Amino acid sequence: MSQRVLVTAAASGIGREIARAFYQGGAAVFVCDVDTSALSELERELPGVRTATCDVGNRADIERMMVAGVAALGGLDVLVNNAGIAGPTATVEQYDPAAWDTVMRVNLTAPSPVHQGAGGPPRRRRARGLPGVGQREGDLRADTTDRQR
Description:
By secondary structure, this protein is an alpha/beta fold. The chain has six helices and six strands; from the N terminus they run βαβαβαβαααββ. Helix content is 42%, strand content 18%. The longest helix is centred in the middle third of the chain and has 15 residues, at 59-73.
């Protein structure tokens, strides 16, 4: 049986290449992104890849997307929690509070409900053998052990 892989923020950039690599390796792939037109392009480029529009800064969107993704794949073997944004470049005094809130929702809050939708918190998930890949301190690696930093 092929791996069942869900990749967030995969309509372009690193997420798209991760999705492409799993697809080319024979995995069943489900991706989400906020960019609907880029998702449509990805569906044409990689027939069989399933997609959903999702703003990971919105918990209700995440919950809907995770239910749809897990159902479409018939389960989940790999989670690539790729979503992240830089936000505007500004001094502390000039940084827009709404932009700050958006960056925090996408980069810090969103991974938790994504992981929960995949089957629970990371520790419990690892015990069941579901690897996850995510950004941690600028480091991209498989999240399959109990390594402590």
